[in-house]
Amino acid sequence: MKLACSAFLAAALLCVPASLAAERYELPLLDEAASYDYVKGLDKASIIPLAAAAIWPASFALICEDGQAFPAALAYAESFALAFVSKELLKMALPRDRPYVYGDGELDGELLDEADESFPSGHTTLAFCAATSFATLALGLAPDHPATPWLVAGGYGLALGTAGLRIASGCHFPSDVLAGALLGSGIGWLVTAANIRFGKLGEDAGRGEGKAAFLGFSFGPSSLLVDISL
Questions:
Q1: What pLDDT score was predicted for residue 26?
Q2: Which of 26, 51, 53, 219 fits a disulfide with 158 by CB distance 3.0 to 4.6 angstroms?
Q3: Per-domain residue ranges of the chain
């Protein structure tokens, strides 16, 4: 795996300013303008485009060459898992009240338990991770296939639908959704692109045959790169 740590750190750095602004100024102007009361139906409905977005990368099997489907699935699974862990860690590290907390309704049960887990939007993170991972696979490995632009657009359409429902349901502020989109897209692209460049998906696959495995670390001003080659 290459660039996994860089993916997490880079995306997290993009998300932190929005959370800090929310803490300092209560509600940014955009968030205050798009703050809604909780709507259970829309909350539950957001699961539908998320589920569709999560399985959308399976359509890569329709446009890829022989032997690419399985390593592509592994690359996507790796990015999706990292996105899930990353959004959970950020929710714990940067607690923020959800929009429905500012309303007049009583909170109980699950709503109360998850009241401070607004940042970032987990649904949006996963949906954009799936869309971007698929787009990276499709545009990188099957750019000339006639179905590629339509499939890429479909993946992002599902991600945008998920994001919109998370705002409309009163579960997230626009900045939560934007942070989730950045986090998911960053991880989806970096992890998948690394697999294409260095793994079994790319033209350079097999370039390491006969070489000893090694683990390398490099440090930059804003990231830690972990390089594992087998």
A1: 66
A2: 53
A3: 4-24+34-229
